[in-house]
Amino acid sequence: MTEDAAPVSVRAGWHIWPIGIIGVLWNGYGCFDFIMTTTRNQAYMAQFPQEMQTYWYSMPWWMFGIWAVGVFGALIASLALLMRSKTAVTFFSAAFVASAASFYVGWKDTEAPKVDGMEFMPFVIMAIGFAFTAYAYWQSTRGVLR
Fold it and tell me: pTM for the full model?
């Protein structure tokens, strides 16, 4: 008697859709922020103090590259999660590492302007990024992501 070697597909839980959609919205905003900043959109940038704008506009090109990997990697990962693709784990991981590197460089930069009341945001962003990465990994180990 032969056994069928076809892989058994694990059914995704109801939570994959809300988490994936929240990921697309959250990370989509990060991409929007990146695009508005890099294109120096005056209407968008007017909400930030001039010293912050000057700092952002003088960042080295490689910092924009790290930032781009963080936000666009996370958006691609969210879309991959919705498509039940294992690449979500790789993209979320890359985005998490890029975010950590970006925040570390900003934290070490003594010239970086600080916004009162927003000191906690890098920790919030990192916690959310870690949660998305852990969720994608969990779904991958369960066999939900292919």
Answer: 0.89
